[in-house]
């Protein structure tokens, strides 16, 4: 598996909320989710209830997009990542590993009845103006 360069994974690790974009029946929808990022799996891990709009969308179309951004009004500090990928329910060893990782970061989640989801990106673009105005780093999953 090819992994994104360190600047991309470091940015993702520094944040904890992603905006998830889904689509069903040609109708888009967005949701915000607390996540943990697994560098080993190159995957975002988060929980969501089965009855939410975005999860209902994913059960029909697991191709998703999203972003993680740094909020700033200073142009020279703009940073953000946009991505596309596929969402799925983890199984077996992956389920154990991702559950452990998520619960370590968000122990309060143990008190909730919710479903763990994995978002495996196939494309990521990091914009980081600290590296130069409009500087973009691109990562694509190998086929």
Walk me through what this model shows.
Strands 1, 2, 3, 4, 5, 6, 7 and 8 form an eight-stranded antiparallel beta sheet that branches. With 143 residues, the chain is α+β, with helices and mostly antiparallel strands. The longest helix has 14 residues, at 92-105. The chain has a single domain (6-140), classed as Roll (Pnp Oxidase, Chain A), CATH 2.30.110. Strand 7 and strand 8 (136-140) form a beta hairpin. Helices cover 21% and strands 43% of the residues.
What topology does this entry show?
Blueprint: H1 6-13, E1 17-24, E2 27-34, E3 36-38, E4 43-48, H2 53-60, E5 63-69, E6 79-88, H3 92-105, E7 115-128, E8 136-140
Antiparallel strand pairs: 1-2, 1-5, 3-4, 4-7, 5-6, 6-7, 7-8
Short description:
With 143 residues, this protein is an alpha+beta fold. It has helices at 6-13, 53-60, 92-105; strands at 17-24, 27-34, 36-38, 43-48, 63-69, 79-88, 115-128, 136-140.
End-to-end gap: 9 Å
The CATH topology name reads: Pnp Oxidase, Chain A
User: Portion of residues in helices?
Assistant: 10-25%
> Given the helix and strand composition, which structural class is it?
alpha+beta
């Amino acid at each position: 598996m090819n992994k994104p360069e360190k600047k991309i994974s470091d940015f993702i690790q520094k944040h904890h909320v992603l905006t998830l974009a889904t689509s069903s029946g040609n109708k888009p929808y967005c949701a915000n989710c607390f996540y943990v990022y697994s560098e080993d799996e190159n995957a975002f891990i988060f929980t969501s209830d089965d009855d939410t709009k975005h999860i209902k969308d994913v059960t029909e179309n697991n191709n998703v997009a999203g972003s993680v951004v740094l909020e700033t009004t200073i142009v020279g500090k703009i940073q953000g990542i946009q991505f596309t990928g596929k969402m799925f329910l983890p199984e077996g060893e992956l389920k154990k590993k991702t559950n452990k990782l998520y619960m370590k970061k968000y122990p309060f989640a143990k008190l909730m009845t919710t479903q763990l989801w994995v978002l495996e990106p196939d494309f990521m673009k990091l914009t980081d103006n600290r590296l130069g105005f409009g500087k973009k780093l691109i990562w694509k999953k190998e086929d």
